[in-house]
Amino acid sequence: MTNYQVRYGSNAKKHKKKCRNAHIRTHGICCVCMINKSEQVHHSSYRKSGDRYGINIFPVCRNCHKTVCHSPKNWIIDLINPEWKNHNTAEFTARLKRNYQRLRKLKINVKKPS
Fold first, then answer.
1. What phi and psi, each to the nearest 5 degrees, are found at residue 96?
2. Residue 97: which residues within 8 A CB-CB, separation 6 or more?
3. Domain coordinates of the chain in residue numbers?
4. E runs forming strands in the chain
5. pTM of the model
6. What is d(CA 15, CA 7) in angstroms, rounded to the nearest whole number?
7. SS3 106
8. Which residues on neighbouring strands pair with residue 62, listed in sequence order?
9. Taking the CA atoms of the chain, what radius of gyration do you get in angstroms?
10. Are 83 and 3 within 8 A, CB to CB?
11. pLDDT more than 90, % of the chain
12. Residue partners of 26: CB distance under 8 A and separation at least 6
C-alpha cells in the first residue's frame, strides 16, 4: 500500500477536490517561488484530522515541490512512521505560510471577454 493510499484511501475524491480549491485560493501561483503556476499540492505535514489550507497544504509548482519542498534542508524523514510523521522544518513551514497569506491577498484583474 502506498503512503497516499494509507493517508486518503476512500477519501481520495475529497482530497483531490481540496487540492483543486487550494490552487484557486492562491490564484494558481506557487507558494514557494511565487512566480510559477502551481501544479501540485505540497503537505508540510500530514494530519489524521484533515488537511487545512495555508496550515499544512500549499499549492506549488512541480520544480519547487521536487527541489525545494522535499530537499534534505527542508524535509525531515521519520523512518519509523513515514506515512504520518514526515514533515517540513518549522522554518520552511513558516515561509510557506507567509507566502500563502501574501498570495491570498493578491487582487488579480481578469479581463472579461468582450
1. -60, -45
2. 54, 55
3. 3-105
4. 40-43, 57-60, 75-76, 87-88
5. 0.85
6. 10
7. coil
8. none
9. 15
10. yes
11. 67
12. 38, 58, 59, 100, 103, 104
State the CB neighbour count (10 A cutoff) for residue 22.
23
- Residue 31 in contact with residue 100, Cβ under 8 Å? yes
Burial of 28 from C-beta contacts in 10 A (0-12 / 13-18 / 19+): middle
Residues 75-94 have pLDDT tens digits of 999 999 988 899 999 999 99
- Segments of 13-109 assigned E as strands: 40-43, 57-60, 75-76, 87-88
Distance, in Å, from the CA atom of 107 to the CA atom of 4, rounded to the nearest integer, reads 34
Closest-CA residue to 18 (of 62, 50, 60, 63): 50
Rounded Cα distance between 31 and 21, Å, is: 14
